[in-house]
Structure to design on (953 residues):
């Protein structure tokens, strides 16, 4: 169990985390959502001890992340940040082997090699194992990083915006993969996500943040409500139920009230002008 | 408001200049003797002190203005003749001239120095186009290293011909050798300065990029070359007559624009005055600090300039990280 | 007993690594070994060539002089190669080496201070060893302070600090030229003498001391190498993998400071040597492991200094100095690197 107790953190004088307290459930996939600057990534960094908070503690099971030994934590908790600037000439298998560093400090035992092979198999990376990272596509590289994380063989996995720079197809398969890891391998996975619909469709639990505080948390069904989303994002987001999936329609600010066209059917009032507005709105949102 | 600044600055400079005439190796001529000078005193003034003063004023003004123009053209605050290879290329040109024609007149040296300065600066501008990371700091680093490479080539050549000690004359600017008959080519910078002033606004526009300039109906290449020639001529002439004065063209325009904003037409006259005043002050310090010996102006300007440059870098780094 | 155990562990590890390596991977390992072997061979050839080329007059005299010269070249090449490579890893940038970060400027400052305060008489009367000790001691001290200051900051500002370092270097030049007029001519000559790298006259005893210090430094680096592989992944990943990041960085910097300080104190500053050597090594040795990279960098360093001095000293008959050539080539290389740099 990850428990966050009373974390406060500031950059310069700006409060980014304001007395955050949180308990994250074991064996589930949890998404942290919120606008830019809400403190999501900072919270993840604090949990994974990349940032030492001004105040408060984080416990992984019975270990305080700030005081427990570095490798004790890294055998329980794996982290993947957004920008992985690797300058060295690494092949996929080299990278995945680094996942065993917490155990063997760079001197791999026969068992380590077995785990590395398993991780490569799990992510279908065997055909790519000798490719250098700079020869891979964005999606493949992301998969290689996930393989390293899996080779680290931890109960807890934290990922900061794992869908960053991935196109729709790769985003979708990445989320499927993480879901599978939670279900098959019993991992506790915590993600920072920007897209509420990915969070809604793939998570067991959603934590919504705003201005350095946890505004609300709960199951996707509990969070994906028009009032709740307005409170979190300061946007009027219409929520649509599609075969049990709750989808937020956030491309327009004034949400269309009433049923939207079902999947597969052509949009009835999709005039070109409106489509352009929607595009503009989406760009504005992404920016 | 700005006009007032210019007049005040001009007035201060005028008084300072006049008083500086009272300083020199011949101690018989002091400040008190200037009101009015006798015939003998006038001789000293006319052959040595007035030429020196004129050289100081023109060198200070032109290097500062050259820096200002370069900063506008490249839209980069850390570019100047001494941080983009212009000065080093001019020194290389002088060395080549001295080697090719053993007894060269000042004019021939100057022409060759102008040509190499233009070529050297052009290479830098080409590099600037190809730089991946066009932030001020990287550009300044590239410029400094490029100047260093040119200087290394110069040293390399001079080492072979046993001419290293001559290099010092041009790399370390000093006004101690200025006499009547040995500085007059400097007046060229006045002419070139006028051209620079007329084109000032256009330099700002092309600094915003080729497409932006073309969109406003300007011939980008032509104005770029005019700027290049103006800057190179100014720098080369000063190097030939006086020698290099490090960081001058970098710090003076920066400090002036920090105080008074970015409009070139308005800032240019004040930059010229400030540059002249700064060099005059450095020279007076150099002449009086270990009197009767002299410190070259480049040493003092280099020391002060280096400190100011570091301050500017730190300042911009702080601004960038916020 | 424990030794046997360790050997057995190592054997199983090697066997497992072999078993789990793909043919492609094995091919790559072999290639790296071949490259390192060739580099080593070239070093031997360069050293032998340097010693025996065109000996005129007394063989014994030439051997004695040349052995000392080649010894100092080897020591400096190895120290600069190893320290620059690991420094790059720690700084997370290929354009930063200790010299570029202001270590050479520091050397000049220390020299100027010593001459200024003690005067050249004291400076020259000191034995070679004492002078070296003062130099190296001051450099280690100031170096630790400098690097602490550098790495205590946000790494984004590293380029700013490089620029500041270069400007400070030119400030020192102004100061030196000032000193040339304030100091007595003798003092200034002494100062000028130590400001340029020279391999021609190296004291034999001193060379032994420096050689020993460098060997100790290189050996101290060995256990750190596999941790440096992880440092190369970046701060976040290294912490996530449980690396004691600050301890590794501090220890490495201590060794780097020691190596750079003694080699600079031995022959004087060579601004771009490390930059060329380390980057060349990274290009020649296609590996991410620091055991390979550092060994490669040491060999390239030795090759560069010995072969370079061979060309300058023997073939060009001292028509120029090695440091001028290094600065020329290194300057151009540095510009190219800077121009390609996308990220700070």
């Amino acid at each position: 169990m990850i428990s966050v107790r009373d974390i406060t953190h500031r950059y310069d004088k700006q409060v980014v985390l304001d007395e955050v307290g949180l308990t994250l459930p074991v064996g589930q996939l949890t998404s942290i959502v919120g606008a830019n600057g809400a403190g999501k990534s900072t919270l993840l960094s604090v949990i994974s001890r990349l940032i030492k908070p001004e105040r408060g503690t984080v416990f992984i099971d019975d270990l305080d992340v700030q005081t427990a030994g570095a490798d004790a934590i890294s055998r329980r908790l794996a982290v993947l940040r957004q920008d992985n600037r690797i300058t060295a000439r690494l092949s996929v298998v080299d990278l995945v082997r680094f996942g065993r560093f917490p155990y063997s400090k760079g001197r791999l035992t026969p068992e380590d090699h077995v785990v590395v092979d398993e991780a490569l198999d799990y992510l279908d990376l065997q055909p790519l194992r000798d490719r250098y990272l700079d020869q891979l596509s964005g999606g493949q590289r992301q998969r290689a990083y996930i393989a390293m994380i899996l080779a680290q063989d931890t109960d807890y996995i934290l990922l900061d915006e794992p869908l960053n720079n991935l196109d729709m197809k790769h985003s979708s398969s990445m989320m499927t993969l993480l879901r599978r890891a939670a279900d098959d391998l019993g991992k506790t996975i915590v993600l920072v996500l920007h897209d509420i619909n990915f969070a809604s469709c793939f998570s067991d639990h959603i934590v919504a943040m705003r201005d350095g505080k946890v505004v609300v948390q709960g199951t996707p069904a509990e969070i994906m409500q028009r009032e709740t989303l307005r409170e979190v994002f300061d946007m009027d987001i219409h929520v649509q139920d599609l075969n049990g999936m709750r989808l937020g329609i956030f491309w327009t600010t004034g949400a269309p009230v009433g049923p939207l066209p079902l999947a597969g059917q052509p949009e009835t009032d999709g005039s070109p002008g409106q489509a352009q507005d929607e595009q503009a709105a989406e760009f504005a949102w992404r920016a | 408001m700005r006009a007032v600044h210019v007049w005040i600055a001009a007035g201060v400079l005028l008084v300072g200049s006049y008083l500086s005439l009272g300083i020199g190796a011949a101690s018989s001529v002091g400040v008190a003797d200037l009101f009015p000078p006798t015939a003998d005193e006038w001789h000293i003034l006319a052959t040595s002190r007035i030429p020196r003063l004129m050289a100081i004023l023109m060198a200070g003004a032109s290097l500062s203005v050259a820096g200002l123009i370069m900063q506008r053209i490249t839209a980069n605050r850390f570019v100047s003749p001494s941080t983009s290879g212009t000065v080093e290329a001019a020194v290389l040109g002088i060395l080549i001239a001295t080697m090719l024609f053993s007894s060269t007149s000042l004019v021939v040296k100057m022409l060759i120095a102008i040509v190499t300065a233009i070529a050297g600066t052009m290479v830098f501008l080409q590099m600037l186009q190809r730089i991946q990371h066009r932030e001020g700091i990287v550009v300044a680093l590239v410029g400094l290293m490029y100047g260093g490479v040119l200087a290394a080539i110069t040293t390399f050549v001079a080492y072979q011909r046993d001419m290293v000690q001559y290099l010092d004359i041009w790399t370390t600017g000093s006004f101690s050798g200025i006499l009547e008959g040995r500085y007059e080519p400097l007046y060229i910078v006045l002419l070139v300065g006028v051209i620079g002033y007329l084109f000032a606004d256009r330099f700002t526009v092309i600094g915003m990029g080729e497409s932006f300039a073309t969109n406003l109906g300007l011939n980008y290449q032509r104005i770029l070359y005019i700027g290049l020639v103006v800057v190179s001529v100014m720098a080369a002439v000063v190097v030939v007559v006086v020698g290099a004065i490090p960081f001058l063209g970098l710090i003076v325009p920066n400090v002036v624009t920090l105080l008074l904003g970015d409009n070139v037409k308005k800032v240019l006259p004040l930059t010229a005055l400030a540059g002249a005043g700064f060099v005059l002050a450095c020279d007076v310090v150099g002449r009086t600090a270990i009197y009767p010996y002299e410190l070259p102006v480049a040493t003092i300007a280099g020391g002060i300039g280096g400190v100011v440059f570091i301050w500017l870098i730190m300042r911009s780094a702080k601004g960038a990280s916020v | 007993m424990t030794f046997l155990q360790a050997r057995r562990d190592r054997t199983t590890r090697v066997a497992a690594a072999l078993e789990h390596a793909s043919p492609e991977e094995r091919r790559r390992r072999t290639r790296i070994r071949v490259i390192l072997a060739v580099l080593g061979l070239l070093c031997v050839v360069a050293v032998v060539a340097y010693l025996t080329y065109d000996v005129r007059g007394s063989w014994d005299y030439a051997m004695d002089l040349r052995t000392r010269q080649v010894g100092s070249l080897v020591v400096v090449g190895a120290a600069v190669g190893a320290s620059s490579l690991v420094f790059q890893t720690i700084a997370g940038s290929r354009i930063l080496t200790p010299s570029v970060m202001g270590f050479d400027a520091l050397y000049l400052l220390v020299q100027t201070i010593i001459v200024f305060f003690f005067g050249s008489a004291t400076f020259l009367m000191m034995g070679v060893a004492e002078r070296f000790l003062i130099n190296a001691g001051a450099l280690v001290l100031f170096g630790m302070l400098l690097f602490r200051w550098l790495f205590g900051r946000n790494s984004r500002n590293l380029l700013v600090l490089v620029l500041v370092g270069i400007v400070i270097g030119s400030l020192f030049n102004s100061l030196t030229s000032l000193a040339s007029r304030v100091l007595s001519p003798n003092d200034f000559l002494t100062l000028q003498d130590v400001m340029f790298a020279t391999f021609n006259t190296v004291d034999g005893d001193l060379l032994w001391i420096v050689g020993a210090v460098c060997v100790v430094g290189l050996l101290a680096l060995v256990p750190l190498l596999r941790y440096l592989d992880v440092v190369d992944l970046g701060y976040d990943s290294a912490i996530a993998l449980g690396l004691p990041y600050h301890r590794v960085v501090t220890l490495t910097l201590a060794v780097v400071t020691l190596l750079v300080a003694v080699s600079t104190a031995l022959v004087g500053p060579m601004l771009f040597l490390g930059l060329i050597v380390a980057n060349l090594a990274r290009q020649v040795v296609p590996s991410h492991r620091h055991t390979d990279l550092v060994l490669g960098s040491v060999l390239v360093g030795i090759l560069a200094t010995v072969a370079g001095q061979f060309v300058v000293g023997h073939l060009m008959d001292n028509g120029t100095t090695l440091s001028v050539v290094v600065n020329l080539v290194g300057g151009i290389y540095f510009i190219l690197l800077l121009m390609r740099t996308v990220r700070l």
Observations:
- The mean pLDDT of chain B is 82.
